[in-house]
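Worked problem 6 (solution included).
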Amino acid sequence: MIIQYYVGTPDEEIEQVRRTLREWNFRVQPNPGELGTSPDERIQVDNVFGTVSNGHRQAVAEIECVQQVIPIEGVPQNLALLRRGHRHTVTIPNPRGAPVEIGAGRPLVVMAGVCAVDADHTLSSHQMARRAGADLNRGGAFKPRTSPYDFQGLKEDGLKVLAEAREAVGLPIVSEILDVRDVDLFMKYDVDVLQTGTRNAQNFELLIEVGRTGKPVLYKRGFSNTMDESLKAANYVMEQGNENLMFCLRGIKGIGHSFRNQGDLDEIVSLSHLIDRPIVYDVSHSTGRKSGVVGVGNMAAAGGADGIIMDVHSAPEHALVDGFQAISDESELARMIATWRQLREITQAQA
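Solution. The predicted structure is:
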């Protein structure tokens, strides 16, 4: 819940309310963005975290200095748009150039690169992505596969290749982490964005450890999870004090659908009115087809997505994983990205 106090309420009265809430085992976070233009016009707001009952809300509402209690329903309070009243921007540091900002009012961010890192084509693929207008390079060094006989990624050798390509290309990198035992390894290679994949969407211990790093985190919705389950799982990252969470949609399991997964594009619109986190859409893994990427990307950008993540490969016939869905033509990729950014700009102007 959110507590709004009357203008001019003395600090000691507010502190007394906070002490009471903490005695009830709630976590209280003052909202620094709710101060008026002068001390006499100050509006103090507290965010209260925990399992809040109607009885708790009623008890707080009856406190003399409390103007109103605002319940937050249907979404974890850490992620709720109502918490701040505006969309949040995540800044991805880039020691090799300008930082990348994704979120409210910012241009569409494109994360493009190889699905699985290889020694021969990662650099050329990531260079192509940058020339076409990408902001980050994605690359999988660890690959969760349905069959134990399928290629599982180059692992640490893949992180080395990815880090070397980053130095040459100059863009931040995003890579999927599969296990808590690999957190130190990802820190060793200073991976800029830690991705938690759909198969780890409810791996709570991993989400906790990834959150504790303080790194930007790209959380992917589980392909069989409800939105409520996914938002609560993503909140494990936020509960570690990590405000750098991005929420990624990638399609869900469907029956008789044309593409690999059933698109959840409508959730972009829904989530943009519920959560303050940047919303990213995976146009490659949701479709599983190169032919579907441009159209689904158009819909995602027009629907208000803050970012798009996709597979590209300079020689898809030699890709270790999913070459059939990777974009390989640089001019085609550049046109896609330019169109998506225009659609995003139009959407922002209408918001």
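Discussion: The chain is about 35% helix and 15% strand.
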